[in-house]
Write a structure and sequence with these properties.
The complex is a heterodimer. Helix content of chain A is 36%, strand content 23%. Chain A is of the alpha/beta class. Chain A has a single domain, classed as LigB-like (Protocatechuate 4,5-dioxygenase, Chain B), CATH 3.40.830.10. In chain A, helix 2 (25-44) packs across helix 4 (122-132), helix 3 packs across helix 5 (156-171) and helix 5 (156-171) packs parallel to helix 9 (239-247). The radius of gyration of chain A is 17 Å and the shape is globular. The two termini of chain A are 15 Å apart. Chain B has helices at residues 3-15, 17-25, 27-31, 38-45, 49-54, 59-68, 73-80. Chain B is globular, with a radius of gyration of 12 Å. Chain B has seven helices and no strands. Classes of the chains: A alpha/beta, B mainly alpha. The interface between A and B is medium-sized, with 17 and 20 residues.
C-alpha cells in the first residue's frame, strides 16, 4: 500500500513574485533557501507523489458555491492568478489517488467536493514551483483546497479530521508509492484590511512551536477569534498546517526557516513534519 | 444591504477580464445586472472600499477590486486606515 513518508508546512506568498524587493536580501535568501532545503528533502525521501493542501483566496470559488473542502480527481491547471515567473499551465495530477481518497471519504463520512478538472490558485502552484519542480522529477500531485480565506471557514477540528482521513485513505491505496504532504499557508498576515503589512512574530512562533511539537490539543485550541486578532485573516490558512499535521499523525517536526517579512506582509514559517511510524 | 451580492460583483470583476472591461466602459450598465440598491451600486461605482469592508465584504475582494483598477496600494491602505488618500 502507499504510505506518507514526509510532511511539510510552508508559505505560498504571491508577494514574493510581484514585489521581490519587499524583502531584504537576507530575508529573501533565507526564504528561498528554506524552499530549496525542503525540495532537497522531498528528493531524499524519494517521493512519488505529493498531496498539496492549499486554500482558496476568493479566486476559484465564488458566492454561488463555497465548498468547505475540495480534492482533485483528474486534471489540474494553475495558477489561475498568474504571477511574474509563474504562469498558468497544466500540473501533473495523480487523479487515481485523489479519486481513491474521495471514495474512501464518501464511505467514512467525508463528502468531498471533487474537481475532475480542477483549477488551482497560487496556494498550490507556489509550493509546486518551489518545492516539487526543483527536485527535477515531475512529481504528480493531489490538490486539496480548504475553506480558509472565505467564510464559512472550515473548522480547525474538521481540518484535523480531514488530515487523519487522508492518512487512512493513503494507507489503503493499492500501490507502493511514497507520498509527501504539504500544508501550504502563511502564518501571520493581513490580506486587504487596514492592518496589512503587520506581522506578529510571537504568534508565528507559537504556531511553529505547536507544529513542531505535534500538539493536536494546542492546535485545536486556537480559536478563530485568536487567529484573526493575533495573526490576521490570512493566518486562517494554518488550517492547512493542521491538516498536514494530522496526515502525518502529528509526530512533531523541526523548523526549517522563519522570517517575519513585513515587506511581503507575512510571517514566513517553514517546517518539516516527522511521520509517525 | 446584501453582503452576498456585493461580494458576487467584486468576485465577478476579479475573475473575468470581460467583466472588468464592461465595468470600465459603463459601470451603471454593468451593475444593473445585479440585485443591488442604488446605495450599494454607488459604493462599487465609487470604489468605497472602506465602506464595503465595513459592511462585511471580504477584504481579499476589496483589495483586488482596487488594484484591478490600476489604483495604488498606498492609497488603498490610507483609505482602509481612514486616512486621507
Amino acid at each position: 500500500m502507499a504510505r506518507i513518508v514526509g510532511g511539510f508546512v510552508a508559505p505560498h506568498n504571491p508577494v514574493m513574485y510581484f514585489n521581490p524587493q519587499g524583502a531584504t536580501q537576507e530575508q529573501s535568501d533565507a526564504c528561498y533557501g528554506a524552499y530549496a532545503a525542503m525540495a532537497d528533502r522531498i528528493k531524499e525521501l524519494e517521493a512519488d507523489a505529493a498531496i498539496v493542501i492549499g486554500c482558496d483566496h476568493y479566486i476559484l470559488f465564488g458566492t454561488e458555491c463555497l465548498p468547505p473542502y475540495v480534492i482533485s480527481t483528474g486534471e489540474i491547471e494553475g495558477p489561475v492568478d498568474q504571477l511574474p515567473g509563474l504562469k498558468r499551465k497544466p500540473l501533473l495530477s495523480h487523479g487515481a489517488l485523489g479519486a481513491h481518497i474521495a471514495a474512501e471519504g464518501s464511505r467514512t463520512g467525508f463528502d468531498w467536493t471533487v474537481g475532475r478538472a480542477l483549477n488551482v490558485d497560487h496556494s498550490v502552484a507556489v509550493p509546486h514551483h518551489l518545492m516539487l519542480e526543483p527536485t527535477g522529477k515531475d512529481i504528480p500531485i493531489v490538490a486539496v483546497m480548504l475553506a480558509c480565506g472565505v467564510d464559512p471557514y472550515l473548522p480547525m477540528a474538521r481540518a484535523w479530521a480531514l488530515g487523519e482521513h487522508i492518512a487512512d485513505a493513503v494507507a489503503s491505496f493499492p500501490s507502493d508509492e511514497r507520498i509527501v504532504v504539504i500544508g501550504s499557508g502563511g502564518i501571520s498576515h493581513h490580506v486587504g484590511d487596514e492592518r496589512m503589512g503587520e506581522v506578529n512574530p510571537a504568534f508565528d512562533q507559537k504556531v511553529l512551536d505547536i507544529v513542531t511539537r505535534g500538539d493536536k490539543d494546542a492546535m485545536l485550541a486556537l480559536t478563530d477569534e485568536e487567529i484573526l486578532r493575533d495573526g490576521g485573516n490570512g493566518a486562517m490558512e494554518i488550517r492547512t498546517f493542521a491538516c498536514a499535521m494530522a496526515a502525518t499523525r502529528a509526530a512533531g517536526g523541526r523548523v526549517v526557516g522563519y522570517e517575519p517579512v513585513e515587506g511581503w506582509v507575512t510571517g514566513m514559517g517553514f517546517a518539516e513534519l516527522e511521520v509517525a511510524a | 444591504m446584501s453582503r452576498n451580492t456585493l461580494e458576487k460583483v467584486l468576485y465577478d470583476l476579479s475573475t473575468s477580464g470581460a467583466n472588468k472591461k464592461k465595468f470600465a466602459e459603463d459601470p451603471d450598465k454593468f451593475l444593473s445586472r445585479y440585485q443591488l440598491s442604488e446605495d450599494e451600486r454607488a459604493l462599487i461605482r465609487d470604489y468605497k472600499v472602506r465602506d464595503l469592508a465595513d459592511l462585511g465584504v471580504n477584504t481579499m475582494l476589496t483589495w483586488g477590486f482596487w488594484l484591478q483598477a490600476g489604483k495604488s496600494n498606498r492609497d488603498y491602505l490610507k483609505i482602509m486606515k481612514r486616512e486621507e488618500a
